[in-house]
Amino acid sequence: MFVKEVICMQANGVTFEESRLQELASTKATFRDYISIMKWGITISNVLATFAGMWVSSHGHPALLAMLYTLVGTALVVAGGAALNNYYDRDIDQLMVRTSKRAVAQGKVAPGAALAIGLSMSAVGLALLFFLVDWQAAACAFVGLFVYSYLYTVWFKRHTTLNTVLGGVSGAMPPLIGWAAGSGGSLGLAAWTLFFTFFLWQPPHFLPLAMKKTEDYRNAGIPMLPVIRGFRETKRQIVIYTAAMVPVSLMLTTLHYEGWIYFIVMAVLGLIFLVRAVQGLFIPEDQDLVWANKVFRFSLVYLMALCIVLVLSVSIF
């Protein structure tokens, strides 16, 4: 009976997934559903990174109005990109436990509505940055949006094990947006040092999560590194990126944008991060997921501490 139903739907030009979405769409979307597609938790963390970049580049004295425009513009672009991601990924989101309850995947928010929200918010955010801040900040925001909502979502995520690495460009753009806004558009070596600190942080953050959700990604046909290359190679790459991140993060002090408080705090946290990463190479296989969960959680602590000490160290220095 089920097979006949599927064949009938295909004959009428309707896929099973579309039929399922139409069935679920009968449930009226709430305001919370619409808010959820913008991934505000991720948006807020990106705004904090933008603020940190702007604070450092202005040596702790950003123009208040410019800061407001920058943070609002960045929030709109990031939230818009998240909505576009929800729109495009609705097919694979239905196949993973972690994402199956997303509003677009469940059909609560219509795909067309998610697309319209994503495009409109992104456009408004980019316009705000371009006309009220500077074109360099807007350009950085556009690159981040394009990489995340198109290159990563459409191509990298579905076709290569380097998806996390290549997609990391978008996650490293917010501090660069803030830097451009706080420096009058100047993006020197210190700006790129901050960019690469955030860029190198992302594999040690997302790869442990991918290990935890390996079966989810396998079921959805997504070629995440632990799915294709296994846990051993994934842990090795976590070590490589963490080891590269630590010295890069400390360069802000040698470039005289951060003081010794920043250097000491981030050196200690970076070494702890590296030790935890290396430990993964020597633990029994049955402890891999426990280790991955610990590294993932510490990566969040590291990022929050990074944003806080970037601001405080400049203020004190």
Describe the structure.
The protein contains 17 helices and no strands. The chain has a domain at about 190-315. About 45% of the residues are buried. The protein is flat. It has helices at about 1-10, 15-25, 30-35, 40-55, 65-90, 90-95, 105, 110-130, 135-160, 165-170, 175-185, 190-210, 215-220, 225-230, 230-255, 260-280, 290-315. With about 325 residues, the protein is an all-alpha fold.
Layout: helices, strands, pairs:
Elements: H1 2-11, H2 16-24, H3 31-36, H4 40-57, H5 64-88, H6 90-93, H7 103-106, H8 111-132, H9 135-159, H10 163-171, H11 173-183, H12 189-212, H13 214-220, H14 225-228, H15 230-254, H16 260-279, H17 288-316
Helix pairs in contact: 4-5, 4-11, 4-17, 5-8, 5-9, 5-11, 8-9, 9-10, 9-11, 10-12, 11-12, 12-15, 12-17, 15-16, 16-17
Protein name: Protoheme IX farnesyltransferase
Pfam family, one: UbiA
Subcellular location: Cell membrane; Membrane
Number of helices: 17
Order of helices and strands: HHHHHHHHHHHHHHHHH
| Average pLDDT metric | 91
Radius of gyration (Å)? 21 Å
What coarse outline follows from CA principal-axis ratios?
flat
Largest sheet geometry: none
The span between the termini is 72 Å
**Sheet/helix structural class:** mainly alpha
List segments where confidence is low: pLDDT < 50 over at least 5 consecutive residues.
Answer: 1-16, 21-26
Helix amount: over 70%
Strand content: under 5%
- Would you report the number of β strands? 0
Keywords: Cell membrane, Heme biosynthesis, Membrane, Transferase, Transmembrane, Transmembrane helix
Main location: membrane
Subunit structure: Interacts with CtaA.
Family: Belongs to the UbiA prenyltransferase family. Protoheme IX farnesyltransferase subfamily.
